[in-house]
Design goal:
The chain is mainly alpha-helical. It is 63% helix and 3% strand. InterPro entries: Na/ntran_symport (IPR000175), SNS_sf (IPR037272).
């Protein structure tokens, strides 16, 4: 059916024939037009340095969730004992999926949409679903960065505005206990930091809920505009510019974390927080929810399935050691989460000492509240509070920007690789249009009820949808494309075949890991609430529609291919895809079709 012409002495493994089955069936309505492949030529961007790529991947994987989500989940699920399921889920689930995506992107050198032409065309809807989810993330995630920018600006004051109860936004329930004796703390008491966050930044008291989100806060809109301006000028020229920006945005958080950890360790009562953080509760390991939380945490922390790893690794040299990259960046990510726990809990121990209560009484906040209420409250009462507030919120902004760079680059690479003739010379305009769409889509999160929209998008816009998508991705690569073929692809890049451990994980353990998370989340749905607001039933319906709006493109595209591909149903199932050209540095191969 075809003849392979080799124009180099180096051996190169090519994907060939039917990528959903071994060999093409007869009279299957074979498309004689070759499928275009984006190869690493001079026309495709390349990373300026290897560290540009590593810092970009680390910057994407290490985000705000490492600082707020891991410490909370760790102490909630048994402290030090939680590290056992966390490490096991990382080794058998998270890291293999991380490695798989880096290898796929580097070998095929294309984005999340067009890569399915070379793996298994009927799963191409996965690429569209990934782009839609990335849009949903940009609608709410950048708003959280805008909140941090608002705090950053407010920190340039000799007295931080969330230190007292004498401001116009404070209520009679505001209670300042720092530096005071015999202060009574009741269920109705609110700290100055909590009222600054809820009544001055979010202004949620002027909204009754999702049914009445209120007006747009111009202060937050200005902050968001500045964030997207930074994002645009970091991404408009491709990885050569974003690769330089991450030298600041990916390294600054580690400098700040080190400073804050040293400062936290010197605070009175810090040891109480560390003991509470790491004290193992072995009986917790018997609870299924602990293992589910460990699996979900490592998955969302490493971030496979968002199309970012595919996009970033597609700009690597063909023979780059993606295996080593996967191990190094995964270790850095997990260690960052662990160290962040010390940064947070030394401060919580200090607050417990000041309130004269147990650590668990001040460790109830989770999610953004941990970063926008609990930690600022502690910072405000330290010596040098202004300095620590400025560097803390600068760290939050840079942590968020890195993840935004990765998320939008996933969309940019996917769409531009799918439509190269139209967009290859119009990157600046396309990126501008994408940033404008993301900004307009974020406007609802800037209202007085915007925090409720953020929570809804975070829960349903990503949630189970992205896990189901990665499950299908892992299944398609391991079972349809074939684990042997995928292993040969890696051998052609690295010079050796992945070991038995990796192949078993890709074929069985990692898909089972994802199925376990999906089934557990469906069997044990958690009621949605924020502050004192309980989400109504109709909002749950809206949430499920948001989740389905991304995932639905997978079956829709499968049906489309069945209807429009010639041949019998069995023949249509084995859709054709041929890699027509794969270039390495100094190598060139072509595939010629003959009748």
């Amino acid at each position: 059916l075809f003849t392979l012409e080799r124009n180099s002495q180096k051996e190169q493994v090519l994907a060939h024939g039917n990528l959903c089955a071994q060999g093409p069936p007869k009279n299957a309505g074979y498309n004689s037009n070759p499928v275009p492949v984006m190869t690493q030529t001079e026309s495709r961007d390349k990373w300026g340095k290897k560290m540009d790529f590593l810092l970009s991947v680390i910057g994407f994987a290490v985000d705000l969730g490492n600082v707020w989500r891991f410490p909370y989940i760790c102490y909630q699920n048994g402290g030090g004992a939680f590290l056992i399921p966390y490490v096991l889920m990382a080794v058998f689930g998270g890291v293999p999926l991380f490695y798989m995506e880096l290898a796929l992107g580097q070998f095929h050198r294309t984005g999340a949409i067009s890569i399915w032409k070379h793996i298994c065309p009927m799963f191409k809807g996965i690429g569209f679903a990934i782009c839609i989810i990335a849009l949903y993330v940009s609608f709410y995630y950048n708003t959280i960065i805008a909140w941090a920018l608002f705090y950053f600006y407010s920190s340039f004051s000799s007295t931080l505005p969330w230190t007292s109860c004498d401001n116009e936004w404070n209520t009679e329930n505001c209670t300042n206990y720092f530096g005071k004796d015999n202060v009574t703390w009741t269920n109705y008491s609110r700290s100055p930091a909590e009222e600054f966050y809820t009544r001055n930044v979010l202004v949620v008291h002027e909204s009754s809920g999702l049914g009445d989100v209120g007006y747009i806060r111009w202060q937050l809109m200005l902050c968001l505009f500045l964030i997207f301006t930074i994002v645009y000028f970091s991404l408009w020229k491709g990885v050569k510019t974003s690769g330089k920006v991450v030298w600041v945005t990916a390294t600054l958080p580690y400098v700040v974390l080190l400073i804050l950890m040293i400062r936290g360790a010197t605070l009175p009562g810090a040891w109480k927080g560390v003991v509470f953080y790491l004290n193992p509760k072995w009986e917790k390991l018997k609870e299924t929810s602990v293992w589910v939380d460990a699996a979900a945490q490592i998955f969302f922390s490493l971030g496979p399935g968002f199309g970012v790893l595919l996009a970033l690794s597609s700009y690597n040299p063909f023979n780059n050691n993606c295996y080593r990259d996967a191990i190094v960046t995964s270790l850095v990510n997990c260690l960052t989460s662990f160290i962040s726990g010390f940064v947070i809990f030394t401060v919580l121990g200090y607050m417990a000492e000041q309130r004269n209560v147990n650590v668990e009484d001040v460790a109830r906040d989770k999610g953004p509240s941990l970063l926008f209420i609990t930690y600022p409250e502690a910072i405000a009462n330290m010596v040098g509070s202004t300095f620590f507030a400025i560097i803390f919120f600068a760290m939050m902004i840079t942590l968020g920007l890195d993840s935004t760079f990765g998320g939008l680059e996933a969309i940019i690479t996917a769409v531009m690789d799918e439509y190269p003739d139209t967009l290859s010379h119009r990157r600046e305009l396309f990126v501008l249009g994408l940033v404008v769409v993301c900004f307009l889509g974020s406007l609802s999160t800037l209202t007085t009820g915007g925090a409720y929209v953020v929570k809804l998008l975070e829960e349903f816009g990503v949630g189970s949808s992205i896990i189901a998508i990665v499950f299908l991705e892992a299944t398609a690569v391991s079972w349809f494309y074939g684990i042997n073929r995928f292993s040969n692809d890696i051998k052609s890049m690295l010079g050796y075949t992945p070991g038995l451990f990796w192949r078993v994980c890709w074929v069985a353990i990692s898909p089972a890991f994802l199925a376990y998370i999906i089934i557990s989340s469906l069997l044990n749905p958690q009621p949605l609430s924020l502050f004192d607001y309980k989400y109504p039933d109709w909002s749950m319906t809206v949430g499920y529609i948001i989740g389905a709006s991304s995932f639905m493109w997978i079956p829709i595209y499968m049906v489309y291919k069945l209807v429009w591909t010639p041949g019998s149903l069995k023949q249509q199932y084995f859709f054709k895809s041929v890699t027509t050209k794969k270039q390495t540095e100094g190598d060139s191969y072509s595939l010629r079709f003959t009748k």
